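Morning F.,

Quick status update on the modeling queue. The single chain you submitted on Monday has been processed. Sequence for confirmation:
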Amino acid sequence: MERYGVLHSVRTILANPRYTGRQVWNRQRTDHDLIDPDNTSLGHRDVTRWNTTADWIISTRPAHPALVSEADFVAVQQIRTHQQPAPGRTYHLAELLCCGICGRRMESHWVHQHPGYRCRHGHTSAARPNPARTPNAYVREDQVLPRLPALHLRLTGHVDTARHESAHPDPVSPPTVEQAVAHLRDEEITLVYDPAARTLTADTPRAEWITIG
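Structure tokens below.
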């Protein structure tokens, strides 16, 4: 137990830039999450989360004696950056969804053991939510993935081709979800989410779209 305590202390020091002698702000934030995204009438709850290092505010000058050199601290952060994400926290559609209300990229968001995507329309957690503001847009990933193979057929033209061929065209093998997601990334296609209509529309010339459950 004593060895564990020492290792834990070392790990804490190497993960906190304050021990390089600099002052650090904005390491954490308070989000006001929906208690149940499928039932917004239940209201919100406050959840404290760690910000990414890009959001930290670090003083330009040392504020107190350092316990670790800046070179060692940077080296440790580079090692941590290349570590694998926690099991079960995979977002298949990260960076692929855009909010149809404000046009912002939707952020990955884990709720009730499910990956999902949300947009707060530029609002931050610095202040409590205003009841008059536009509600957050939210969609669960498992509501989108089953619909992607159908969208893939529309994006690749297989649906229209089948309609204009002979009365007995060769059947088109249904694509997998993985193939559909890979196509979106390869072609740099973004899906625009309309929370009112529950639709996803591709930002393509033909604006192919699907309805999600």
